[in-house]
């Protein structure tokens, strides 16, 4: 029977590492020194990072990169990105540069409502539940006063409460669907705190509600939680140019390029295998800026991918159209992000990212993110229909392989020249290192 450890979270960092070394590694000194090397030498900064998660024993680095020349709604942005995928930033920067001279990207937030749900079972009918909520609406809302006070000052708060009868799907299942405006915060904590306060009040009031007592009706609160499906928090972005301006793209004639690009986008509309990969390319950019700005990329991923199935079939999130000699790419996605709250006020590099972006509002950030997703998508599909993805990918991967093979600075310099027209893989790189010692 495997042994389980009790009280792991209560152990000190040293004790946790001892436990790890004993359990998994022969050489505890090596493990300890690796973990120590990734600690921040500034104790205050390290303390901030330790506070983000339980059982933290070190930091886990990813590259922090910049992509300049992003013209969005006529404003020139430099985009901070966190990603481990080598070609993402290079491809994105190329796309930003390409569109800069053609007017850049335009973007608009179309809607801004976030939703939370109180899931409950009720053994009466919808009308009785509706009447109970209407009769007590004021008290239910009042239970959130302490939580909503500051949010109201910032223009946010609760905007609607709706009762939804789900009894056709599940016996006795009803939902209170509550709409929120969370201003510049992503609002997960705010929404969940409001929902829990409301649930408590509903439970309390329903137990004293005469009509329910007489009729033998009762409400059983099952759970209260925000929804990461945010189809009413939508941002649109697009870029457009004359077809004749699509020049210098891997030697392909502009009309031919436009037609091939549109065909590739159309394939992603009709084929799920391609749609998922096409959307993954979009998320390469979106996740990287979400992480750099301290936003919850898991929430965005869940919401965006579910939105891709809005038409009851998983589809691509972006489109390419050709009309009146204009080439246009566009995207529409749900996005719930924040520029205050969460780790945005704590993580030093997140704060820096927001400064680099000019301290955007959450709506501005939605626009920036949508444009980054679209640019990344354009870059990926452009490569796919021209030189193929591996050329750029392997150029970047070459550095990884050189480091893996312990190349020195001089060997790296020479390898970059040598591999311009050669096959890049682990054995070709290690052979190069061997013969260039
Ligand atoms: C790779 O990370 C992303 C791509 O596969 C996206 C796409 O196929 O559109 C290149």
Question: Care to give the gist of this entry?
Answer:
With 437 residues, the chain is α+β, with helices and mostly antiparallel strands. Helix content is 49%, strand content 19%.
Description:
- The chain is an alpha+beta fold and 437 residues long.
- It is built from 16 helices and ten strands.
- The chain has helices at 13-24, 28-37, 43-50, 88-100, 126-142, 145-153, 188-208, 210-215, 254-270, 272-292, 297-307, 348-356, 362-385, 390-404, 409-418, 426-435, and strands at residues 64-72, 75-82, 105-109, 114-122, 157-165, 173-181, 219-226, 234-242, 318-323, 326-334.
- The strands form three sheets. It has a four-stranded antiparallel sheet.
- A hairpin with a 2-residue loop joins strand 9 (318-323) and strand 10 (326-334).
- Helix 14 (390-404) packs antiparallel against helix 15.
- The longest helix has 24 residues, at 362-385.
- The two termini are 52 Å apart.
- The mean pLDDT is 95.
- The chain binds (R)-mevalonate.
- (R)-mevalonate (MEV) binds next to helix 10 and helix 13.
Number of DSSP strand runs: 10
What small molecules accompany the polymer chains?
Answer: (R)-mevalonate
CATH level 1 name of the largest domain: Alpha Beta
Which CATH-level-2 architecture of the largest domain? Answer: Alpha-Beta Complex
Q: Number of helix segments?
A: 16
**Side-by-side strand order of the widest sheet:** 3-8-10-9
**CATH level-4 homologous superfamily of the largest domain:** 3-hydroxy-3-methylglutaryl-coenzyme A Reductase, Chain A, domain 2
What is CATH's topology name of the largest domain? Answer: 3-hydroxy-3-methylglutaryl-coenzyme A Reductase, Chain A, domain 2
Q: Supply Rg.
A: 27 Å
The stretches of 5 or more residues where confidence is low (pLDDT under 50) are none
Helix content: 40-55%
Structural class: alpha+beta
Mean pLDDT: 95
Question: What number of structural domains do the residues give?
Answer: 4
Tell the overall outline: globular
Residue share in β-strands = 15-25%
Write the element-wise H/E pattern from the N-terminal end onward: HHHEEHEEHHEEHHEEHHHEEHHHHH
Q: How is the biggest beta sheet arranged? A: 4 strands, antiparallel
Distance between the termini: 52 Å
């Amino acid at each position: 029977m495997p042994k389980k450890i009790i009280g792991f979270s209560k152990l000190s960092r040293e004790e946790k590492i001892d436990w790890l070394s004993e359990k998994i590694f022969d050489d505890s000194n090596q493990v300890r020194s690796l973990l120590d090397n990734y600690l921040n030498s500034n104790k205050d900064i390290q303390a901030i990072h330790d506070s983000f998660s339980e059982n933290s024993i070190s930091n886990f680095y990813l590259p922090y990169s910049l992509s300049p020349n992003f013209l969005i709604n006529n404003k020139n942005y430099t985009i901070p990105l966190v990603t481990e995928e080598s070609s993402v930033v290079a491809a994105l920067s190329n796309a930003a540069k390409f569109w800069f001279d053609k007017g850049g990207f335009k973007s608009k937030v179309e809607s801004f409502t976030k939703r939370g749900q109180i899931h409950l079972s009720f053994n009466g009918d919808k009308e009785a539940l509706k009447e109970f909520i209407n009769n007590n609406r004021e008290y239910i809302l009042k239970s959130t006063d302490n939580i909503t006070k500051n949010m109201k000052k910032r223009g946010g708060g609760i905007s609607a409460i709706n009762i939804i009868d789900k009894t056709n799907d599940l016996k006795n299942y009803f939902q209170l669907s509550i709409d929120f405006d969370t201003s510049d915060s992503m609002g997960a904590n705010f929404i969940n705190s409001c929902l829990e306060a409301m649930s408590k009040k509903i439970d309390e009031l329903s137990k004293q509600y005469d009509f329910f007592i007489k009729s033998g009706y009762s409400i059983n609160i099952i759970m209260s939680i925000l929804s990461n499906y945010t189809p009413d928090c939508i941002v649109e972005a697009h870029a457009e140019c004359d077809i004749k301006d699509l020049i210098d793209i891997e030697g392909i004639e502009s009309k031919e390029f436009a037609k091939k690009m549109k065909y590739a986008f159309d394939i992603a509309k009709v084929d799920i295998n391609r749609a998922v990969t096409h959307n993954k390319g979009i998320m390469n950019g979106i996740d990287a800026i979400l992480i750099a700005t301290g936003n919850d990329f898991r929430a965005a991923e869940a919401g965006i991918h579910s939105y891709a199935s809005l038409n009851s079939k998983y589809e691509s999130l972006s489109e390419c159209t050709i009309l009146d000699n204009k080439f246009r790419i566009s995207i529409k996605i749900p996005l719930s992000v924040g520029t205050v709250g969460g780790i945005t006020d704590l993580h030093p590099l997140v704060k820096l990212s927001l400064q680099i972006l000019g301290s955007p509002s959450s709506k501005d950030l939605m626009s920036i993110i949508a444009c980054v997703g679209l640019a990344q998508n354009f870059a990926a599909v452009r490569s796919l229909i021209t030189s193929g993805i591996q050329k750029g990918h392997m150029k970047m991967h070459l550095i990884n392989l050189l480091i893996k093979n312990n190349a020195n600075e001089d060997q790296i310099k020479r390898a970059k020249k040598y591999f311009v027209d050669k096959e890049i893989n682990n054995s070709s790189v290690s052979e190069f290192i061997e013969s260039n010692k």
